[in-house]
From TrEMBL:
A Pfam match: PPR_2
Recorded family membership: Belongs to the PPR family. P subfamily.
MF GO annotations: mRNA binding
Lineage, top ranks: Eukaryota, Viridiplantae, Streptophyta, Embryophyta, Tracheophyta
Superkingdom of source: Eukaryota
Ranges: PPR repeats: 166-200, 235-269, 270-304, 340-374, 375-409, 444-478, 479-513, 514-548, 549-583, 584-618, 619-653, 654-688, 689-723, 724-758, 759-793, 794-828
Protein name per UniProt: Pentacotripeptide-repeat region of PRORP domain-containing protein
C-alpha cells in the first residue's frame, strides 16, 4: 500500500457550512447490529453487479433504492463496504449510496463503511467539507465511543482495503477533537498521527495550540511546541500563539526567549509576531531592545502601529529615560501617527518625576488645546505631580477643571489632594477638602486613614479620634491600618494608657491586630521606660501565632539595650540565631551601643567580632559607636586602629564619626589633634555641625582659652549654624570662671533672645559663677527668675548661694536659705551639711558636682 499525502484546500468559509449528513438521535446511533447473515443473498450480489456495471450509475442506484426495504433485510456492513469499494474512484456515487444505506439501516459509527467512505471522499477536494462534518459528528457524539484510537482504525482500514491514506482525513479528525473541546484526546490524537509519520497541516496544529492556550492548558501547549521545534513543523503563527500563551501568564521574559529562538532558527516572522515581541520586551522591560525591534520592523517595510509605538514610549518611561521616550514620540509623529493620550500622559509623568513640572503642565495645555481630550487618568497624573511638587494651588485648579469638563472625580483624586495639603501643612485646606468629599459621597477607608495618620503624627489625637467616629458613622469599617495609625499617634505622645485602651477596643470589635500593631506598642512602651509592658506585648505577639519581623526584633533588642539589659538582649540574639533568625547590621549595632553605654567596652568588642565572623559587614554606625566607647575609656590606640580598618574597608567617616574623634581629643585637651581633624573634615567636603563646634568650644574652655571659644561661637553664627543650649551653657560657665561676668551676662541675654529656654544646668552655672564673684544677691535674683518660670532650684543651686553667704560672713541668711530649701522639699546633701558645719566655703571651689555638670 502506498501512502499519498495531498494538501487540502482550507478556507474559513468551509468551516462555517452546515453538515449535509442526516442527523441521528443518540439512540439511533447507539443501536448495534446484533446479527447479520454470514452470506449475502445471491439476489443482493446480482444487484451489486448491476450497480457496478451499469454506466448510468445514478439511474440504476435510484432504481435499486426504490425497491421495498424488505428485499434488503439481510444487508450487512460488509456488503455496504463492498459496494462502497466498487466506487472508490467515484466519491459522489459512494456518498450517495452511503447516505441511502445509512438512512435505511442503523450502522455503527467507526465501522468499516464509515472509514472506507472517509478515505474515498478524501480523493476529491469537493468533499472535504463532508469529511469535516462527518468527523465532527462522530467525535462530538459522546455515546459514539470515538477516541484517539480512530487514527489506528483509519490506517488499518486503508491497509486492509488498499486505499490511499490522505492526511486531510487526519487533519479533520484532529480538528474535530479540538472543536468538541476534547483537548486531552486531541493531544493524544496528534501524538498518534505524528508517530505514524502522517503529515499535518500547520494551520491545524496552530488551531490546536490556540485552543489549548485559550483554555489555560499552557503547559500542554508548551510541550506541544517543543516537539514542533524539534521536527521543524511550525511557522510564525505557531510562534505567535506560544508567545501569547506566555504573555497570558505574564511571563514576558519567556515570550521574548521564544521570539529570539524562532528568529535564530530562520523562521520567517510576520508583523504580528514582531508586535507581540515588542510588547513582551517592553514589559520585561528592555526598552532599548524593543526600539531595536521597532527599527527592524521598519527596515522590513512594515509600519509599526500606534499601539507598538505607545509600548516603546511606555517602556522608556518606566526606565526613566525621558530623552529616548521623546525620540520615539517624534518618530511616531513623523510616521503620520498623532501623539495619543497614553503617550502624552506618560510624558507628563516623566516630566514631573524629573522635577520639571512646568513642562508637564505645558504638554497638558497643548493636548487640551489640540487634542486628544484629557481623561481621568491624565488628570490623576498631573494632580499627583502638582501635589508632589507642593504646588497645591495648581493641583486644586486641575481638580476643579476636571469636574467642569464632566469627569467625576473619585476617592483617589481626593486622596492625592488631601495628602498634598497635609504634606504642605495646610491643615485647614485638607480638612475642607475632606469634608467636601464626604458630603459628595466620594470617600473610602484609605482617605480616612491618611487623615488619621497625619493628625496622629501632628499630635492632634482628639481630632484623629473624631475622624474615626465619623468613619464609623458613615458605615465604613476601620481596618488594621486605621487602628495602627491611632495607636502610633498615642505612642508618639507617650500616652501608653490610651494606646493600650485603643488596642483593647481593637481586639474586642476591630480587625485582628497584626505584627505592626504589636511592634508599635512594644516600641512605645520601651520609649516610655515600660520594659515589662513591652515584653508582655512581645510575648502576646508570639502567643497569637504571629511571626515577628526583623523590624520587631530590632525594636525588642534595641529596647532592652536602652533599658541597660544589654546582656539579656545578647542572649536573646544567640537564641534567635539558633532558630534561624538572620540579623542585620542594625541588630548588632543596638547591642554594641548598649554595651558602650554600660561602659562594657570589652563586651562591645566581642559582639563586633561575632558580627564580622557571621558575615555581617559593620557600617559607619558600628565603627562610630565602638570608637566613641574606646575614646571614652581612653583606649585611643585601638580607636585609631578601628578608624584605619574602617577606611581600609572603603567606609568613609561621616560627620558623626569625625565628631566622636574630635570630642575625644577635646576631652583629652589635645586641641592640636582636634584642629587637624577639623581641617581634614573640611578637606573631604564636610562641614562641622553644632556638635563638633560644641566639642571644640568645650575643649578651649577647659584650657581657659575663652577668646578662641568665643571666636568659634562667632564663626558658628556667621556660618548660620544653630547654637543650642549646650553652646551657651559652656560659654557662660567658661566666662564666669575667668571672671568675665559682664560678657557672661550678655551671652545669657542673647540666649534668651534667641528663644532658647534655660534649664537647671544653666541656672546652676549662673548661680555658682555669681556667688564665686561675690554677687550673691544677683544669684538670688536668678533663683526668683527660676521660680517665676515654675522651675524648682535644686540642691546644688542652694549650696552655691549658702556657700556664698558664708563667704561673706552672713551666716543668718545662709541658715535661712537652708530652712527655705527644706520647706520647698529640696533635700540637703552631704555638701550642704559640710558647708553648714564648717560655716565656711573655699573661694576657689564650687559646690556644683562634676557629675552633674561635666563639660
Amino acid at each position: 500500500m502506498t501512502i499519498k499525502r495531498r494538501r487540502p484546500r482550507f478556507s474559513p468559509a468551509v468551516f462555517r457550512c452546515r453538515s449535509l449528513l442526516p442527523h441521528h438521535s443518540k439512540s439511533q446511533t447507539f443501536n448495534l447490529y446484533t446479527s447479520y447473515s454470514s452470506q449475502v443473498s445471491s439476489q443482493n450480489e446480482k444487484q451489486a453487479s448491476i450497480i457496478t456495471k451499469t454506466p448510468d450509475t445514478k439511474t440504476k442506484l435510484s432504481h435499486i433504492f426504490s425497491q421495498p426495504i424488505s428485499r434488503y433485510e439481510l444487508l450487512s456492513p460488509a456488503h455496504v463496504t463492498k459496494v462502497l469499494l466498487t466506487h472508490r474512484n467515484d466519491p459522489g456515487s459512494a456518498l450517495h449510496y452511503f447516505k441511502w444505506a445509512e438512512k435505511k439501516f442503523n450502522m455503527v459509527i467507526s465501522t468499516d463503511p464509515y472509514l472506507v467512505l472517509l478515505h474515498i471522499l478524501a480523493g476529491s477536494e469537493d468533499y472535504y467539507r463532508v469529511i469535516r462534518n462527518m468527523l465532527n459528528r462522530m467525535v462530538s457524539d459522546c455515546l459514539s465511543g470515538i477516541g484517539p484510537n480512530l487514527v489506528d482504525q483509519l490506517i488499518d482500514c486503508a491497509k486492509r482495503f488498499d486505499l490511499e491514506v490522505n492526511y486531510v482525513v487526519f487533519n479533520y479528525l484532529l480538528n474535530g477533537f479540538v472543536r468538541a473541546g476534547r483537548f486531552i484526546d486531541a493531544i493524544e490524537c496528534f501524538g498518534r498521527i505524528v508517530e505514524c509519520e502522517i503529515s499535518l497541516s500547520v494551520w491545524c496544529i496552530n488551531f490546536l495550540m490556540s485552543r489549548l492556550v485559550r483554555n489555560n492548558l499552557i503547559e500542554e501547549a508548551k510541550d506541544l511546541y517543543a516537539g514542533l521545534v524539534v521536527r521543524g513543523t511550525y511557522d510564525c503563527a505557531t510562534v505567535d500563539v506560544i508567545m501569547r500563551a506566555c504573555m497570558k501568564e505574564e511571563r514576558f521574559d519567556e515570550a521574548e526567549k521564544y521570539f529570539r529562538q524562532a528568529k535564530g532558527s530562520g523562521v520567517k516572522l510576520d508583523v504580528s509576531v514582531y508586535c507581540g515581541a515588542i510588547y513582551a520586551v517592553c514589559k520585561v522591560p528592555d526598552a532599548d531592545y524593543a526600539y531595536e525591534l521597532l527599527k527592524e520592523m521598519k527596515g522590513l517595510g512594515w509600519s509599526p502601529a500606534e499601539g507598538t509605538y505607545t509600548c516603546v514610549v511606555g517602556a522608556y518611561m518606566n526606565q526613566k529615560n525621558m530623552v529616548a521616550a521623546l525620540k520615539v514620540r517624534d518618530e511616531m509623529v513623523a510616521d503620520g501617527i498623532p501623539m495619543n493620550l497614553i503617550v502624552a500622559t506618560s510624558l507628563m509623568k516623566g516630566y514631573y518625576l524629573e522635577g520639571d513640572l512646568g513642562k508637564a503642565l505645558g504638554l497638558f495645555e497643548e493636548i487640551e488645546r489640540d487634542g486628544p481630550a484629557p481623561d481621568k487618568y491624565t488628570y490623576s497624573v498631573l494632580i499627583q505631580g502638582c501635589c508632589r511638587h507642593g504646588n497645591m494651588h495648581k493641583a486644586k485648579e486641575l481638580y476643579n477643571r476636571m469636574k467642569l469638563s464632566g469627569i467625576e472625580p473619585d476617592a483617589y483624586h481626593v486622596n492625592y489632594l488631601i495628602r498634598g495639603f497635609l504634606e504642605a501643612e495646610l491643615w485647614e485646606e485638607a480638612l475642607v477638602q475632606f469634608h467636601d468629599a464626604v458630603e459628595c459621597g466620594v470617600y473610602n477607608v484609605f482617605m480616612y486613614n491618611v487623615l488619621m495618620s497625619s493628625l496622629g503624627k501632628a499630635g492632634n489625637m482628639s481630632e484623629a479620634c473624631n475622624i474615626l467616629d465619623d468613619m464609623l458613622s458613615k458605615g465604613l469599617v476601620p481596618n488594621v491600618v486605621s487602628y495602627n495609625s491611632l495607636i502610633l499617634g498615642y505612642c508618639r505622645q507617650g500616652n501608653m494608657d490610651s494606646a493600650s485602651n485603643l488596642f483593647a477596643d481593637m481586639q474586642e470589635k476591630g480587625p485582628k491586630p497584626n505584627v505592626i500593631t504589636y511592634s508599635i506598642l512594644i516600641d512605645g512602651h520601651f520609649r516610655k521606660g515600660g520594659t515589662e509592658d513591652a515584653m508582655k506585648y512581645f510575648n502576646q505577639l508570639l502567643s497569637q501565632g504571629l511571626t515577628p519581623t526583623n523590624y520587631t526584633y530590632n525594636i525588642l533588642l534595641n529596647g532592652l539595650c536602652k533599658a541597660r539589659r544589654t546582656s539579656e538582649a545578647r542572649d536573646r540574639l544567640k537564641k534567635l540565631l539558633e532558630d534561624g533568625f538572620i540579623p542585620d547590621c542594625m541588630v548588632y549595632n543596638s547591642i554594641i551601643y548598649g554595651f558602650v553605654k554600660e561602659n562594657a567596652i570589652n563586651s562591645a568588642l566581642a559582639v563586633y567580632t561575632e558580627m564580622c565572623e557571621s558575615g555581617i559587614c559593620p557600617n559607619v554606625i558600628t565603627y562610630t559607636t565602638l570608637i566613641d566607647g574606646l575614646l571614652k575609656s581612653n583606649n585611643y590606640d585601638l580607636a585609631i586602629k578601628l578608624k584605619n580598618d574602617m577606611r581600609n574597608k572603603g567606609l568613609k567617616l561621616d560627620i558623626t564619626a569625625y565628631g566622636v574623634f574630635i570630642d575625644g581629643y577635646c576631652k583629652r585637651r589635645d586641641m592640636e589633634s582636634a584642629r587637624e581633624l577639623c581641617d581634614e573634615l573640611y578637606a573631604v567636603g564636610l562641614s562641622p555641625n553644632t556638635v563638633v563646634y560644641n566639642s571644640m568650644i568645650s575643649g578651649f574652655k577647659s584650657l581657659s582659652d575663652m577668646d578662641t571659644a568665643l571666636m568659634l561661637y562667632n564663626k558658628m553664627i556667621q556660618d548660620g549654624i544653630q547654637c543650642d543650649l549646650a553652646t551657651y551653657t559652656t560659654l557662660i560657665d567658661g566666662l564666669l570662671k575667668v571672671g568675665k561676668l559682664l560678657e557672661a551676662t550678655n551671652l545669657y541675654t542673647r540666649m534668651l533672645a534667641d528663644g532658647i529656654k534655660p534649664d537647671v544646668i544653666v541656672y546652676s552655672v549662673l548661680v555658682s559663677g555669681l556667688c564665686n564673684k561675690g554677687q550673691v544677691e544677683n544669684a538670688r535674683k536668678i533663683v526668683k527668675e527660676m521660680e517665676s518660670k515654675n522651675a524648682v532650684p535644686n540642691v546644688l543651686i542652694y549650696n552655691s548661694i549658702i556657700a556664698g553667704y558664708f563667704r561673706e560672713g552672713n551666716f543668718v541668711e545662709g541658715f535661712k536659705l537652708h530652712d527655705e530649701m527644706i520647706e520647698k522639699g529640696v533635700t540637703p546633701d552631704d555638701t550642704t551639711y559640710d558647708i553648714l558645719v564648717s560655716r565656711k566655703a573655699s573661694g576657689n571651689s564650687s559646690p556644683i558636682s562634676a557629675t552633674f555638670f561635666n563639660l
